[in-house]
Specification:
alpha/beta; GMP Synthetase, Chain A, domain 3; four-stranded mixed β-sheet; 14 helices; 35% helix
């Protein structure tokens, strides 16, 4: 009952009347788009892209200079294939051209954001208020597909920021109460699955939203100990890490509920999501352009993910390479939606770090912990044996070493009190033979 009141009255009043945001008008637009034909969807996408390209050429110095050098103008764009005429945007390019990537007509009107640095390089970027509203709207559409709609009692087995003032904690707590959700911070539970089982059962959610690794390990614990939570779940939604088939099977066995997989990243939020048919992840092509570089667009053919954000006019990302790998599906979903689909996402599994007790620390732990450290340019964690960690850092003059005291305490709490932690300051993080940088490297057999 509460979810219906919340989604129909409370939340629209809060967003539209109190916050003066257009989230729900965008939500209505996205919901009406989902059953358009593929031709209609591609037309919607194409018109948004043309408008964005023209805006970039007129207002964003980086793109104006780059495209002039290539002899490209927005009028040269005639269809999806023409987008490949433009170079990709990378994290290094953004870092080195930050000011030139801010649109002149949006300067001082953007919202600062940062990624968790899953490639070892925290990325700072900016979005507009309109972009934020559209991201929220398209995310709620994706969650709606799984049965995890607005206002449903939801348990988030997720990561949260480590620092909150009392006022922020109070504000955040009230906000979550209104949304009918509760966070079970995976980094604070320190692998105490007995406690998590008791508290989750007591909360009795209708929906679980979780990182893949902690939910998988929790499911292993439940099955190994023959624990049945008896939750009447409407949906289980996973994200933040690649979901492997054996993980899906075991989670579904432990909770007696199908798992809905999603794909997104902090730069854009939700990019694609399964519906309740679980036949692939629908790509939000009315919100972004998602290309697979070096892919033949065939079923199962893997390519590098390249994203163009159609709504962020403040700091436009045109053909941004986020470091992920994915493969297309060439099938139509039986749900009737003609949004194209990804078959799967690859390359999102960070090396797990093994604790001394044999349990695994989620791969997202270190990016989440280190992403907001001022002066930190790059990082890498190396585990050479079960009782030690090397934390390799590349910093600049703004970095304060005093922050490492608290960082070390958080790591010890998550790992083991007797752990040997070494902080090493390097000129650069070594790359693999393929030129990639790995965030976590474990030499301990899992």
């Amino acid at each position: 009952m509460y979810d219906k009141l919340f989604s129909k009255y409370f939340y629209p009043f809060y967003e539209s009347k109190l916050r003066k945001r257009n989230t729900f008008s965008y939500y209505a637009e996205y919901m009406s788009n989902q059953y358009l034909s593929l031709d209609e969807l591609e037309y919607v996408q194409g018109e948004k892209l043309k408008k964005l390209l023209q805006h970039c050429y007129e207002n964003v110095a980086y793109y104006k200079n780059l495209w002039d050098g290539l002899g490209f103008t927005p009028q040269d764009y005639k269809g999806p294939g023409d987008l490949k005429l433009l170079p990709v945007l990378t994290k290094d390019i953004i870092k080195n051209n930050y000011n030139e990537l801010i649109a002149e007509n949006y300067r001082d009107k953007t919202i600062a954001k940062a990624t968790g640095g899953s490639t070892g390089v925290p990325l700072r970027f900016a979005i507009t208020r309109e972009s934020y509203e559209k991201r929220v709207a398209v995310t709620w559409r994706g969650y709606e597909w799984s049965g995890a709609g607005l206002g449903k009692k939801t348990a988030y087995i997720w990561g949260q920021d480590f620092k909150y003032t009392f006022i922020n904690k109070l504000k955040y707590g009230l906000y979550n109460q209104a949304f009918n959700r509760k966070y079970f911070n995976v980094f604070e539970y320190n692998h105490n699955f007995e406690r998590l089982a008791v508290e989750l059962k007591a909360y009795n959610p209708k929906v679980i939203v979780s990182f893949v690794t902690p939910l998988y390990e929790f499911a292993v614990y439940l099955l190994a100990n023959n624990i049945q939570l008896d939750l009447a779940l409407d949906a289980i939604v996973t994200g933040a890490e690649a979901l492997q088939s054996h993980q899906r099977d075991l989670i579904e066995k432990a909770f007696s509920k199908s798992v809905t997989n999603t794909y997104g990243c902090r730069e854009f939020m939700l990019l694609a999501a399964e519906c309740d048919r679980h036949e692939g992840m629908h790509i939000n092509i009315d919100h972004v352009v998602l290309e697979l570089e070096n892919s033949n667009s065939l079923q199962g053919d893997i390519g590098e993910v390249v994203i163009t954000d159609l709504s962020n006019y403040g700091m436009p990302f045109i053909r941004y390479k986020n470091g992920d790998l994915a493969s297309y599906s060439d099938k139509d979903c039986s749900c009737g939606r003609r949004l194209p689909m990804l078959a799967s996402v690859h390359g999102r599994v960070l090396d797990a770090i093994k604790r001394p007790d044999g349990s695994l620390l989620p791969g997202e732990f270190f990016p989440h912990l280190l992403k907001d450290l001022g002066g930190l340019l790059q990082f890498q964690i190396v585990q050479n044996d079960i009782n030690s960690l090397d934390i390799n850092l590349v910093t600049d003059g703004l970095f304060e070493k005093s922050a490492l005291v608290e960082i070390e305490a958080v790591i010890r709490n998550a790992m083991h009190e007797d752990l040997l932690i070494s902080f090493n300051f390097l000129e650069a993080i070594p790359t693999t033979d393929m030129g990639k940088t790995r965030v976590t490297i474990s030499h301990v057999e899992l």
